[in-house]
Amino acid sequence: MKKLGLAIAACVVGIAPAQASTLFMGSYPDKMLVLDEATGAVKDRLTLASGLPTSMRISNDQKRIYVTTITTSGIEVIDTATKKVINSFSLNTPTTRYRFNGGVPDPSGKFFFTMMQKFEKLQDRWTVGPQMFGVIDLTKKAVVRTAAVPEEDVRAGAGRGNYMMSLDGKTMFLIRDKVLVVDTAALKVTDRLEFSKPEATGIEGVSFGGGVETLRNPAEYVSMFTAQDPYIRNKVYGVGRFNLATKAFDFRPIGPAPVGGGMAGLQVSKDMKEGWTVVTQEKVGNKRCEFWHLDLTTNLVKNKAEFPCRTRFQFGMSGDGKMLYIYGASYDIEMYDAQTLKHIKTIDLGNDTTGAGMIITQ
Fold it and tell me: Is the pLDDT of residue 257 over 50?
């Protein structure tokens, strides 16, 4: 079995009709932008008391947005109905600090599961703790349980990856170079899924690509994957689906993988028949960026279109699936028609946005 390489976009996007949709985006230094998606107007700028937002996660019922912040290692909870912060706290104290990035709430919304490190101040120095699985009580506003991450699962970047939770809240999945299956009661790794060869003839070494940024089905993780044949090492890309309940993995090849670049940010239509991804090739002065529009029923590329590259950016899609967004590390959002892939307009946000991504709700 082959290990999986992971490069996952950190954001998850909720679904809602565009005419009634609200778009949330993190921005410097401590703000959450609230936009009317239909007009692009910034309706509010919520202040996050715990600082700079680094990741966002929407609950399965679409009622809460959980934001992690880096300035004081905090969590902010936003109510999607009132569009207000309803819970805000920092885990840091003058002598104790935590570092974590991302996570997932349990189905009750009372606890937040993540991977973290703890730093403690002594008289003459700070000590750096080991990587831990952590449970944060959102009512007590404190870390209530931790467990050491097994040595074989320790990675640079600690908890960077994509977190998923089973519908019954008994299992957390951390998807990165492999899938770690963690029992939430014991905080122990019960399984490590290193996917074996897919069923496609003559293909091996399947690896993760950019994760789907739309939470269409909370029981399934959808991603762009790459694979290569065992003989001359030609790489192909395709769409993979990982079922959280059965742990079954399905990979469907689409075509040759781009040379000298990568693919990330898979977006999928509501009926799961169409997909969009961003392909980057080469670097710096020769860098080329393209949209690829995929037919997921036939596994064919419907059309492609080049767009102006940025040094770094994120890829998203509108709530109704009609427009594609290029944004991040900038003061604007570039909007493109999802079918023709042509540029429609640019929205000026008035704030520099962070890498926390965007969430769209009704």
Answer: yes
